[in-house]
Design a protein that fits this description.
By secondary structure, the protein is an all-alpha fold. The protein has helices at residues 3-22, 28-44, 54-65, 69-84, 105-118, 133-149, 153-169, 171-185, 190-211. It is globular.
Length: 217
């Protein structure tokens, strides 16, 4: 793998990891960790500066870095209202909830889990279903991290093919609709911003992978 590709794999892994963490339940401990890590993450993601989605990701990290206690509490309430309360109009953070009314929820979740297992990864889902948005993003982070450590170009190329295939089969199929639903119910919130950045990131990352060796093979 060339130095340029390896140099992108590590910050790409970090971007997926922070978005995954930001879309898990915002416990006080998790949110405090994100807030404390945000300035360091801005620097870590600097290699992505020239890419189109970078300003949106940087803006999210800067918002996290400056999050007040009141804003943190509001974010926890928004997350609970949309994703925990179970109210009829809420947009669940699961792929199986956004694939159409005839979707078999168990089969959809099993398909995602099968993708994880076929890649040889068992993720720490923290009690979430395999098709939870954060678990899917964490899987992509793990693949990017493996790519960064790949001992040979052929292995790095195989991992990029896995990333692209997963993006097309899963996040890109449902995250745009999910983001629209969250924005409609909780506009201008940190949660809506996070989901919107996640959508922009997966869309751009799929295009980036198309431009790297063997990603589309």
């Amino acid at each position: 793998m060339s130095g340029e590709e390896r140099g992108l794999a590590e910050p790409r892994a970090a971007a997926y990891r922070v978005l995954a963490s930001a879309l898990l339940p915002p416990t006080p401990e998790r949110l405090a960790t994100l807030v404390a890590a945000a300035p360091e993450l801005v620097a870590l993601l600097e290699p992505l500066r020239g890419l189109a989605f970078h300003p949106a990701l940087r803006a999210l990290l800067e918002r996290l870095a400056g999050l007040s206690a009141e804003e943190a509490e509001e974010h926890r309430r928004t997350y609970a209202t949309l994703f925990v309360s179970g109210r009829r109009s809420s947009p669940p953070p699961y792929e199986s909830a956004h694939l159409g009314p005839d979707t078999d929820v168990a089969m959809a979740a099993a398909a995602v889990d099968a993708a994880y297992r076929s890649a040889g990864l068992v993720l720490d889902a923290e009690g979430e279903a395999p098709d939870h948005v954060a678990v899917e993003l964490d899987f992509l982070s793990a693949l990017c991290a493996r790519e960064a450590e790949a001992p040979a170009p052929a292995e790095a190329e195989r991992l990029r093919r896995l990333q692209r295939a997963f993006l097309l089969a899963h996040p890109l199929r449902w995250l745009p609709r999910f983001a629209e639903a969250v924005a409609a119910q909780a506009p201008v919130t940190l949660l809506a911003q996070t989901v919107e950045v996640a959508v922009r990131y997966v869309e751009h990352d799929a295009a980036l992978l198309d431009s790297l060796p063997a990603a589309a093979g």
